[in-house]
Every structure is written in C-alpha cells, then in structure tokens.
Amino acid sequence: MGQGGWKGLCLSLFDYKTEKYVIAKNKKVGLLYRLLQLSILLYLVVWVFMVKKGYQDIDTSLQSAVITKVKGVAFTNTSELGERLWDVADYVIPPQGESVFVVMTNLIVTPNQRQDTCAENEDILNAKCSKDSDCHPGEAVVAGNGVKTGRCLRVGSAKGTCEIFAWCPVETKSKPAKLLLDEAEEFTIYIKNSIRFPKFNFSKTNVLDTKNSSFLKTCCFDLNNLYCPIFRLGSVVRWAGSNFQEMALEGGVIGIHIEWDCDLDKASSECNPQYSFSRLDNRFAEKSISSGYNFRFAKYYRDASGVEFRTLMKAYGIRFDVMVNGKAGKFSIIPTVINVSSGVALMGAGAFFCDLVLIYFIKKSHFYRGKKYEEVRGRECRAQLVESQRQGGAWEAKDAAGPGPGPRGVEQSPRAEPEGQRPGLPQRQEAQDRGGGSNGDGCVCRRLLEGCAQPASSGHLEERKVNVEQLQTLQAVET
After folding, report:
1. Mean pLDDT along residues 380-403
2. Cβ atoms within 10 A of the Cβ of 38, count?
C-alpha cells in the first residue's frame, strides 16, 4: 500500500457515517407503522409498567416462619375405649405446632396386644396355607403382621392361615364405618405467620398488632378480618371444596396457601396476606382403595407382673400443609431503564418490519427499493472527477474573459465539441439503475458533473465553484 493509501486510511478513521433516510409517501405503510408504534407503546405502558410493575426491583427470597395451634375438645363412648374425653394432646400430631400437622378425626382401636403366637389375618395372601410346609419358619409375612412359626392353622376349612409370632391379637378391621370425632368440625386452628424480605429489610406478621389480650379469644377469620388467623376447621374444609363429614371419615390433605404480594412504594399497611385453600389429595377417588389419609401409632403399658402390652391405634385424620409464598417490589432506576430501552428497541423492530413490507411486498416495491439502496461505481466516478476538475478551470478562465473570443494568454479548449454537446462533458451513456429507480443513472458523480458542465456565465460562477469543491471532496473520499 502506497503513501497515499495509508494517508487515506488514516483520514478515514475520522469520517462520520450516517444513514440515508427516504420519506415514502405511502399511506398504507405509514398507517401500519403508526399502528405498530401504538401497539408497542401500549404494551410498554399497560403490561410492562402497570401490570408487571417493570419499574420495580423484585425480591422473591421470602423468609417465613409458621406456628400452629389447635383448640377444641370432644367426648366419645365406644365399646373399645368406653367413655373418653379427647383434647388437643390426644388428637393433634405432632404436638409441636409445625407448618404440617394432623387433626385426628377417626380411629380403629386394637386393645391389649401382647407379643405372642396367633393366626395371621385371613386377608393376607402370603399367609394362606394348606399344610405346615407352606409356612417356612422365621419368614416374615409380606404385608403382614409378624414372622411365621412353621405351623399352618386350619379354621374349619380346607385352606388355613400360617401361625405367626407378633403383637396378638392382630388388627382385623380395614376401614372405619362410623365417624368417631364428629365434633372436630368445630375445632379452631391458629396459624401465625411471620415473614421477612431481606433485600429491603421489611418484616411483617399476619396477626394484628394490638395490646388487647382478648382479641384472639373472640375474633374469627373472614375476608374482612385478615389479621385474625383463627380458622374454624369445618370452614377450612368447606373453602377447599369438600364436605367435612365425608372427608373426616377416611381422612384427606388440605393445603392452606398464604400469599404476600407487597408493593413497598406504598405504605406497609397495604401489604396484606392473601389466603387460599385447596384439597391436595384426589377428592374424586373417595371410594378408591387408596383414598384418604391414615397412620398407626401405639400406647404401651405394663401389667402387674411387668409384662408389656399395648393399644394399637389406626388413626384417620385431616392433614394440613401451610405453604407461604410471596414477593416484594420497590422502585429502582435500573429495571426502569432496562424496560424503557427494550421498548425503544421494539420500536426499531417495527421500523424494520415496515421496511420489509415497503421494499418487498407492495406493488411498487422495486421503485422504493431503488430509492433506498443507491449503487455508486468508484472507477467511473473518479475518471469523471478528474475531467471535471480540468474543465472547471477552463470555465472559470472563460467566464473571467467575458463573451466573445478569449484574450491572449488564456488557453482555449484543445478540441471542438459538436453542436449541442456541453464542453468537457463525456457523451452521456444510457442509465443503469440497478437499484430499481426509474430515472437515476446509478452514480452520484455523474449528477454532480452535469451541474458543473453547464455553460458558465458570470451570474453562475459562484455556483460552479461550489460544485467543483464538492467534486474535489468526493475525490478525496474516493482516494
């Protein structure tokens, strides 16, 4: 690369390039462009800023603690247990007051079980036998209650049951036929929830901040009293879309959802908990073999001789899962700038889409495409620039001499031009419009040359000088 080339490269580093804008007088495309702008503006204002609050910084790392208590008593009189009073220590499991707890509503009791040998339950398939060899000593009964002893006990039929070593007598009932704690519908549940958003150092609880000691003893939760977290058990089951008497018979699972959606640009009193209730187990399979919720536990005793025995209880109940979610938002300049910038970028996408429609899909697309994209040929323009500079100097001298024969010392044009042809202007060739224009010749330099090649009069000298300066500038850019 020569010295001139390096000089041109260095000078080009300080060039400023800008786009060429074409104003298309097309009403359809113009209307489409304004509709796109309006749609993007509505999306940005309504959805991004008003609905999604895109101007806020969001904290979803909620820290939560849940404390629960159940209150209520019930009285029963059954053949297995006799007369008995049930309080919180009897029917709430576990008693610690966690976010997941069970309120027992029904019970199957197998009293006075001792470790001994007895016949396995007849409903256990793995325990059926016809002779002793069918019962392998020391083998545990699959889905049964004990270990086989090697004996087959016949109970008045051809098929017998293996003898087992277990807690005898074994449990016989599989499902309850009657609800035990039907009074549990009136029990109350106290749910205290404390939350904190660490990013904004904001804390709150769902209990009314009051010094009135009788408030929690007299209030009950409803939609107008969100800060009294005392829930009636029957109402919670009803809000979850179930019937208490049907659900309590075999048990189920209820979800209590507490949602905190806090706008910290407003007062803290506007940040309120929202409650929702749902049944989490399959309520449509109430008659299925897998329906309900139950578990077993035992209470152990010793008789006067020191022999241990127990009372086995198969408990059915309603399990409550307290789930807490939430988010907090507060104004921040960073998400605001990001969302506004995204909207501006979408505006540019709308302009790009309209460009595609304008130059490819409408009837006169070739015409607009030719006006938007103009082709400039470097070699042809440079040759005409050199010729224009030479002829420009001759025109200036000719204009200074005035009309008529030129004075001595002024060099005349070395060649005579045919009549009707402009001095110094090469024969105009047929225009080549690769861009699709109807009248353009495809070269900016030619258009400027045509302006410079007009016969110069004294009144147009300054205009030609400007054109010559423009051509010299174009020559420097071409170099």
Report:
1. 57
2. 11
Tokens of 253: 């699972």
pLDDT digits (tens, 9 = 90+) for 192-229: 999 999 999 999 999 998 888 889 888 999 888 899 99
337-338-342-345 Cα dihedral, nearest 10 degrees? 70
d(CA 201, CA 63): 11
**Are the C-beta atoms of 474 and 392 separated by less than 8 Å?**
no
Report, in this order, helix, strand and coil percent for the chain, each rounded to 5. 35, 30, 35
State whether residue 32 is helix, strand or coil.
helix
Token digits of residue 15: 């060039």
pLDDT band at 99 (very low <50, low <70, confident <90, very high): very high
Cα gap 107→181, rounded to integer Å = 9
The C-alpha torsion from 33 through 36 and 40 to 41, rounded to 10°, is: 60
CA-nearest of 278, 232, 293, 289 to 72 is 232
- How much is the CA Rg of the chain, to the nearest whole Å? 48
Question: Whole-angstrom Cα distance, residue 354 to residue 458?
Answer: 49
Amino acid at 277: F
What distance in Å separates the CA atoms of residue 128 and residue 161, rounded to the nearest whole number? 5
How far is Cα 64 from Cα 205, in angstroms, rounded to an integer? 10
Q: Choose among 101, 78, 80: nearest CA to 91.
A: 101
Residues, the chain, total? 479
What per-residue string of b and e applies to 59-70 under the rule 16 or more CB within 10 Å gives b?
Answer: beebebebbbeb
Q: Tokens at residue 50, please?
A: 């008003």
CA-nearest of 298, 289, 280 to 250 is 289
Distance CA 330, CA 165 (A): 67
Beta strand pairing call for 100-119 and 147-154: unpaired
